[in-house]
Amino acid sequence: MAAAPAYATAYSNTAVLVPRLHTTKPTVRCSALPYLPPRSSSTAFTASTKHFSEPRRSSLLQVRASSSEDTSLDTGELFTGLKEKWDAVENKSTVLLYGGGAIVAVWLSAVVVGAVNSVPLLPKIMELVGLGYTGWFVYRYLLFKSSRKELATDIEELKKKIAGTE
């Protein structure tokens, strides 16, 4: 089997022309994944990798991470732990109310974001506002050492107010 042409092995998110051996017409394959030539033998694979530069060849390698420790999750232990924590909660109605409120808030914010995205120029304006605020925040709190210390003290004060130790 002959090595695939260079244009057939290039990464592409659009149509890739792949010539067939028995016909003269090229076949068009549409795929979100890159086309890779079939691996019929190790010599054909070695010959086809000669067209790639060194960084390109290293992208063909697959690496599998493994761990010596057991990372599997036992669902029985998970449910017993959750049941113990739920039994330890004194005011269950408040927890359910806050949980339901959080779910409604996430849903409502998704609706608002969808509505804002449907207005033609508004998303770009919001991006500009966000970039402007980010630039101001960096200049005001992160650029100079004294302002970084001020930000750290403000964060510590806020932590104390939330924890109720102040």
UniProtKB/TrEMBL annotation:
Subcellular location: Membrane
Domain Cyanobacterial aminoacyl-tRNA synthetase CAAD residues, every copy: 82-164
Pfam name, any one: CAAD
InterPro entries with a match to the protein in the record: CAAD_dom, CURT1
Topology of the protein relative to the lipid bilayer: Multi-pass membrane protein
Statement: the UniProt record of this protein carries the keyword Transmembrane: yes
Principal location listed in the UniProt entry: membrane
Keyword Transmembrane helix: yes
Transmembrane segments: 95-115, 121-139
Alphabetically ordered keywords of this record: Membrane, Transmembrane, Transmembrane helix
GO CC aspect terms: chloroplast thylakoid membrane
Name assigned to this protein: Cyanobacterial aminoacyl-tRNA synthetase CAAD domain-containing protein
